Structures are given as structure tokens and as C-alpha cells.
Amino acid sequence: MGRLIVVSNRVATPTETKGSAGGLAVGVFGALKDAGGVWFGWSGDVVSETVANAGPTLEQDGAVTFATVGLTRKDYDQYYRGFSNATLWPVFHYRNDLARYEREEYAGYRRVNAWLAHKLIRLLEPDDVIWIHDYHLIPFAEALRNEGITNRIGFFLHIPFPAPQILLNIPPHEELVKSLSCYDLLGFQTATDQLAFHDYVTRHARGTVSADGLVEAFGRKLRTGVYRIGVFPDEIAEQAKRYESRQHVLELKQSLEGRKLIMSVDRLDYSKGLVERFRAFEQLLERSPEWRGNVTLVQIAPPTRSDVATYQKIRQDLEYEAGRINGRYSGLDYTPIRYLNQQYDRWKLMSLFRESQIGFVTPLHDGMNLVAKEYVAAQNPDDPGVLVLSIFAGAAAELSGALLVNPHDAIGMCDALQRALQMPLDARQRRHEINMAALRKNDLGVWRDSFLSDLRSVPVQQTGTGGGR
Ligand code: GDG
Fold first, then answer.
1. What Enzyme Commission number(s) appear in the record (predicted)?
2. 469: pLDDT strictly greater than 80
């Protein structure tokens, strides 16, 4: 078996892969340890041109090499802050209204991809299998192919793939899809995303998709598949239980004074539907006065990408909404929304999930949404909370024990909260069992192993970047 090379925008540090970092780092590291190989990507540092060019910096941990490079300010602005997060992220989340397109940023995005690919080449061996992650790196395989690399290369998209009519908003949409055709295997979170890609290929790229799923486009053949990312549910359950008697949980319990608890945790991002969620909670207090003073929403939202203008706006909007709703319904001893703009320890979060009666997860669009899965896994099976989940999270297709809501329907969400707050124990347990069975059947290991086994079995093509049309 050839080595595994993982490329992602950010690389976890060796310590993060062992501690309480997000499950993804742990899952990917597991595969790297088994096969031996390299995890390559940006270190997260902005550095001088000299330092950037000197990279990658190598750190060895057993059979795994962590290889990272710094980015110059210009590269960071154009590739990361610009085209990745101000064009691709909003459009792929159906927020064309928040997207901008700048030719220089797009050129920078391609330039950085080519530069990173060039840096990786000297670390490659002929039978390595290469797994590229996410929207920052769409042109990565094309750049490798341009340098003559014929290894198997797979790509997993963590975020939604938009319907063609939405993708057309990005002027170089065709170049992006042509770049995707340079992979041997494309993995999507849901069948909807896969279908949207096939739709683009057949309707806008004069390609074909055969009955057995083989895609032919831009002179290349590739496979696509649905690989639902998961968590390791039993590990989360164990850690959540272990942390439940810690000080922070006891303090929270005491401060709630017997009130019901609704928990939400999201990166502070406009795709997560935070404003809509606050308004739905407001509806609950408005329409059901008996809940005033008796239920608290804890929203944890650590800031991300805070140097991108649209993220500054969502932060202001949310502060305004929290202040407005709290101003309206607070009492001297009651604050309906506790809005915490900071990062918490992972196991602390899981134990807070376990303490709550509702997990309120309502993105407007989301590739999968791991918080929804973590919430389920963290529950106490003897007295589980209820997951209220947006139909626009990829996880909604799997978690049939959740109460599904449309995040644009404040009253519908309010009704679901009511239902969850009043749900009898046996119904909660039944729903929890259904959700846990889904999580166990398709855990993070299944996601990783099925993608890699499909990638390792695609035939190697000797062609480069394809002839185009
Ligand atoms: C992208 C896609 C897809 C959050 N706050 C804290 C914290 N978190 C952790 C959560 C969870 C992770 O971050 C967030 O994962 P999500 O899946 O919910 O969302 P994205 O960050 O947008 O991830 C998404 C995912 O990629 C994987 O493919 O599911 O659709 O958008 O694990 O627990 N962790 C800690 N402190 C926090 O305050 N420690």
C-alpha cells in the first residue's frame, strides 16, 4: 500500500491530533499513521517572502511528516481572505449577495495553489495516494498534473456544492470545474451536492455521467461519491460523561436555578443562521409567556475570519439581536440569551451539551454540521436532550430522530422548541437511539476508510490536465 499524502489549508499540529482537537484532525491522522505519509499545508502564519520560500518546515511524528509553509501577506489576502473566503465560501453557501469577485484575488488563489503544489512535489513518491481537502484547494490537482504528477488524487469538499445556477455567479466557474476534473475521485457530503456537480458537468460542460457514476469531462475520467463525515460517538459520550461533574458544569447548573437549557455552538459565521435562531427563540418567549424566566439559550460562537468584512457585520448583527431580545425579556435575575463570543475546550462543550434539554442547530446551509452529531453523541441515554436541526444541514439526511426545521420559519422553529421542551422521556429516548444508531453506523472511521479505499482502487490515468473543450 502506498503512503498517504493529506493536503489541507491548515495542518493540525502533532499535539492537536492527540488531544481534544476536532474529530477531523484525529480521524485524518489515524489514516496517516496507518499508511505512513505526509500532512501538508499552511502553518497559519503570515511571513516574509524569504521565510515562505524557505519552507516547508518538517516535523516528524512516527511514520507521519507534518510539512507546513507560511504565506506572505499578499498571498494570504488574495488566496485565503479573498477568493476562498470572500468569493467561494459565500457562493457555495448560496450567499451571492455577500460575495465579491476580484480578478487579482482569483489569480492569487491559483498562484498560491500552484506554489503549494510545487512545494509538495519534492516530498512525493511514485505510489503515494494524495487526498486534498476543501474549497481553498480546488486547483491543487491541476497544478500537480501540470508538473507531470500522475498519482491518484482525491478531493473532499467539506462544504455544499451549489446548484449550477448559483455557481454561474462566479465568473471563472468553468475553470473551477475543469480543475475539479483533474482529480480521480471527488467526495461530497450529500447526494444533493453530488447531483449539483453532475448537473453542472452535463448541462454546462458538455460532459457525461454514466449510469455507473463515471464522469467524463474536459478530456478526463473521474469518479464521484457521497461520503458523509461523522464523529466517533462513543468517545464523545465517554468524555461528556467524564466531564459532567467538573466545576464549569456545576456552576452552569447552579446559575440556571432549575431553568431549561437550550445549547447552540457555532463558529461565528453567517451560514450558521444565528440571527434567525435568536429570533425564533424570541418567538418562544413572545408567544408562550410561561417560558419567560424558565428557559435559557446559551449560544457559544467563537469568532472566525474576523478580518473579512462580512464576518464583522454578522458579529455586529448578532450583538444587536442578543442585546435587543435580552433588553425585552430579562428580569433582575434572568437573562434569556447568554451569548459567549469565545472558544471553549472541546470536552467542556460536550459536557454542556449533555446538561441541556435541547441542541438548537439551525444553519441556513451547511456541508454536514458536526455540532449536530456531537450534540447527539454527548447526551445521557437515560435522560437525553432533543436535537432541533435545520433541513439545510447535511446531517439532516441521517439524523431522523431530530426535529427538523426550516431556519427561515421563525414560528416553525418556535413550535419545534415547544415540542422538544415538553417531549416525554420515552419519546426522547426513542429519538436518541435512532440518532445514535445512525452515528455509529457511519462514524468518522467509515467516512475516512471508504473514501480512501475508493481512491486507492481508481485506475491510474496517464493523461495530464485534459484537453478541455
Ligand atoms: C466545515 C463545514 C462540515 C465550535 N466551537 C468550538 C469548537 N467548535 C467545533 C465543533 C465542531 C467544529 O468546531 C465545527 O464543525 P462544523 O461541522 O459544525 O462546521 P464548520 O466549522 O463550518 O466545518 C461543515 C465540516 O467542515 C466537516 O466536514 O461538517 O459543514 O462547514 O467540531 O465542536 N471546538 C472547540 N471550542 C469551540 O468553542 N474546542
1. 2.4.1.15
2. no
